[in-house]
What we know:
- The chain is of the alpha+beta class.
- About 35% of the residues are buried.
- Mean pLDDT is about 75; it is low at about 1-45, about 145-155, about 385-395 and about 590-600.
Amino acid sequence: MSLLHHDFRPTAQQLRIRSERVFAEFVCNREIALQSARHLRTFDFMLRQYELVERVKEYDPDADEAALNRAYVYTVQKHGSQKRASGDPYFSHPIEVAGLMTDLQLDEQTIITALLHDTVEDTLVTIEEIEEFFGADVARLVDGVTKLSKIEAMPENERAAENLRKFLLAMSEDIRVLLVKLADRLHNMRTLHFIKKPEKRQRIARETMDIYAPLAERIGMYEYMREMQALAFEQLEPEAFTTITKRLEQLRSHDGGQVDAIALKVKQVLAEAGLKVEVSGREKHPYSIWKKMAERHVSFEQVTDIMAFRVICESEADCYAAMGILHTTWQFLPGRFKDYISTPKSNGYRSLHTSLMYENSMRVEVQIRTRDMHSRNEFGLAAHWAYKQSDEADGEVAWLRDLIEIVDASHDAEELLEHTRMAIYQDRIFAFTPKGALFQLPKGATSVDFAFAVHTDLGAQTVGAKINGRHMPLRTALNNGDVVEIIKGKQAEPRLSWLGFVVTGKARAAIRRAVRLKERAEVADIGSKLFGEIASKVPARIGKKAIRDAIGRLDLDGPEDLMFAIGAAKLTDREVMEALVPGCTAEFEDDGEWSKRDKVISIRGLTPGVAFELADCCHPVPGDRIVGLRRKGETVLVHSIDCLELANGIDTDWLDLSWGKRSQGAVGRLRVTLYDRTGTLAEMAGIFAQNKTNVTSLNQVQLDHPFTTYEIDAEVQDLAHLTRILSALRASDAVAQAERI
């Protein structure tokens, strides 16, 4: 029987003796095993197998020792001789990550996941093998944490977005995925300085600052957040980090133990009032100081609240009593008091914050909390195993559901990263529904943001809002404590103009998605009109079955996709006709109707057989004065005589050209600006259809409420035909402006 299926029940003392021998048995090769065991002994810094098991058993006596032992030995064996950038054996990384998980007193499945989290990515191990040896739950967690190798081949933004997309989906199912991932990133940041390439260090640090530190903050793991920010700041702003660190060292050497003296004074004042407290003081981290300098546009010397103090009380009542005593002993700064005990942050953070003017006009920040609050504030959800407490977890990680909505609504990598960063990393305010439900939003949030926070459907149907009982514009920024009543309409829909003032990622993603769906519907409407013309060319009556068969031949999902593909010029007339009635376009081959442009258009002035193309820069059509540019070995490019690109043709041969008799099917390019109203795109499509014009390309190039601008390529017979189309467009109430490019 394989050692993987043995039931280990050794004592801690036996484990100390047998740890290397267990590894040897697992490898099943005595010579290799002895070498590996000797290798292990040289790394005294690494958490040993028996030490890891002892740590888990201290807080979870019922933990499965056998499974923990199997996982430890498995990761050592599978990573084998792999090295990290520091030169340490690679398996030291997952073992240290597992150690971080024991510090949070997490369950054995999470510890095992930490041990195995890199085996699938960096070794030949499969998820199926993990499931066979360690069970389905561990396999699911490992799969959620694993960084897929395909992501590394993507461009940086797409890679980061895809990584984040998979990560958010996985952690929404089990918060332990996030806990392991954060510990993995924290340990990687601690060893980041070993990576030789500065650009790689910068990329990892930026990703940590933008994504992982904010995620740690959102679940209340402030200890992880602060360390990740400090390590990333050192890489991203090395000069600022060095300068601030040196200034702090200078202050430390000259303050004569001032931090300890202030902490002692605060404790004495509170003790004299009968409160039993613990008081500690510290300097703020370099990144925190740098952030204040940047936000306030001040120098280091002008940052007055460099010192922060923490008061640990025995009860909530003592917290408020301590705050009152401190406020009567020293002057407090108005506007700097925050009560996160009665109104906790969305991540469960609870504390009283205040700033005092200490002796000699020194500003100091004071945080007051109970011991339980302190434990929860430093390690958030992990501190109380919130993933096992469904009611508590549901309330505190509800923002994860918003992130999943953002994942679904985001159109591309840029949108996903933008919306997600907005959702996870902004200062918060509190607002209430008329029934008293509390919602936390970023500073600057509006009634529209509030509506989407309550429910996506409510946001989509918003037509107005009352703030504290008064009708206010939707773009009005909310303040702490506002009561917001949303007025909705059944026929309402999100407006593009809202993007000018909403600040939440959820609202922006939902609005953009709704606008895209609306535009898709209008393009599909264009396709429906064009489909009628195409179907009229087919030598058969087109019914539902023919359309259904055509959709299958074109590998589309349904009629709407077919109409959209036609309206967006993703399918040619011939492709649609062939899909409807295979072989029906053969009769058109002889007269050249389906031939390439250089066979449809005839040009005088060219040597017979010489290839030419109509230039994309000016899109000449029959009726324009034209000239040809020819470089040796290249196709002749036909330009309109007033094309600006002709200035770049000094080193080419110029040919005096004119249109031949068979000149139809040329493409004219138009820029059309429509009013942003329902049906305007369809009305424009009708104008092209009435003028018997095939639209070959339709691109939205600008959104500027209340206008939407498109660039359109349309097949025309000649300049007169193009002029008639422009005149019809300009006469339409749907069109604000139309011009030829």
